[in-house]
Amino acid sequence: xxxxxTNKTPNIILGKPSINxxxxxxNKYSNNExxxxxxxxxxxxxxxxxxxxxxxxxxxxxxxxVDVQNYNGCYPAVVVNNLGQVS
Length: 87
Description:
Layout: H1 2-6, H2 23-28, E1 35-38, H3 41-51, E2 54-58, H4 65-70, E3 78-80
Parallel strand pairs: 1-2, 2-3
């Protein structure tokens, strides 16, 4: 949106799925100690892929089980119906 309204490309992108969002965390923990939990394949899962970390897909938000089955990427490490199932 900023690029369209200003005609300028940002120097850095901090939002998902940019790994810049989690660089501080990756300085403290390795990617195999971290899992991204979210309900969007195109942002949350993509961020996990960019980090080379696991993704826990929560189906209580935007993504459905059919979306997960039809996803053209690596299958999430875990798929749960809601956050209460994450422990």
